[in-house]
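Changelog-adjacent note: as of this version, every example in the card shows the full chain rather than a window. The one below runs 154 residues end to end.
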Amino acid sequence: MWAILPHMDPTVFLPHRPPFLLLDDVIVPEPGRIATGIWTPGPERFKGHFPGRPILPGVLQVEAIAQVGACALLAEDNRGLPLFGGIDKVRWKKQVAPGDTLTIEVTLETRRRNIGKGRGKAFVNGDLACDAQLMFIIVPHSPDPEEEPKSKET
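Full-length structure tokens:
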């Protein structure tokens, strides 16, 4: 019997906030290994790229893939912050236009200590738009700069 997994607010996993939070929702069927995300880029993401022929920048597609991978990782263990360590073999196969929705699938393949690798694919209407291999590094959380400093007792 298959379990129906709920779509979740990505802010449950990610520290990202607008305008850098790219995902609309996420499903994590296998924490630490697999996640799927959904993103429908708003018109502001296409401004100036390119006038008369709007196309979603490839770097935003790769960032969205990385955010889905971070959700997979943080759903299992949120004791650190995953950062880009590298991007390899990125290929764009289809232009993403206004109104398109990206379905992003990421599988984390290896992890040793604080370094890992994964592969992500972004699809539009079932057609591959972007494919990338990602390397991530997990760093310790830093204090929230907006958090009130704790007073010292005298």
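Structural remarks: DSSP finds one helix and six strands in the chain.
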